[in-house]
């Protein structure tokens, strides 16, 4: 197999074991089927914006050219900080986009990735968001009518719990002590300001995820196409948006959105 195309984040499907698909130049590659195989990925020195398609010397925010980074609704500040969203006030880079992405139901969740964390996502992104973060378990904490309100709930929770994933720890395959997500949800919900408690959901459904990994790194070494354009080795697994290779090496494909690569199996 030999294919060339611009990278986008891998698609995922929640099964007994998460299934991953990489799309290159319209071809759909079953990444689970490549685990245990030799894989070579070569960066060809070109980057195309994942939004407008123009060639750019540098990628911003995981795949955008600078003009799109500064103007596109996909890169507005509320993407990383929901509490800064102003779409509910009629203020956004693109109100049509905001109506479909900000002014819809959002979920505030608890997930076990490198430890227990809180996060926010659109209801349409469940369970994709959890898989992209490499979560092994997750539960809804609250549902809100828009992104801004979800951001307020998350900010209140950040006083008690992390909102970031330690990706090195997540990729170490460390076995976490059992976390009682339902007890954690009950405890954290009780710490919300009174005006936000009405958004807490009664759901006790625990989502669980298993990833196609045959061997985790003992000490994670991150690979970077900008420093070394050729990444090769035996593929040992996939978790989140990371490919895990033999010899403790990993690469975050989503980080290199828009990079043109040549991919081939080597045996």
Radius of gyration: 19 Å
What is the CA-CA span between the terminal residues?
Answer: 10 Å
Structural class by secondary-structure content: alpha+beta
Spatial strand sequence of the major β-sheet: 1-14-5-11-12-13-10
Nearest-integer average pLDDT: 96
What does the model show?
This protein is of the alpha+beta class and 267 residues long. It has two domains: 2-63 and 213-265, no CATH class; 106-208, no CATH class. Helices cover 16% and strands 30% of the residues. The protein is built from six helices and 14 strands. The protein has helices at 66-71, 95-101, 128-132, 147-157, 167-170, 181-189, and strands at residues 2-6, 11-13, 19-24, 27-30, 38-47, 106-112, 116-122, 137-144, 207-208, 221-222, 230-239, 242-245, 249-252, 259-265. The strands form three sheets. The chain has a seven-stranded mixed beta sheet, with no helix packed on it. Strand 12 (242-245) and strand 13 form a beta hairpin. The longest helix has 11 residues, at 147-157. It is globular and about 60 Å long.
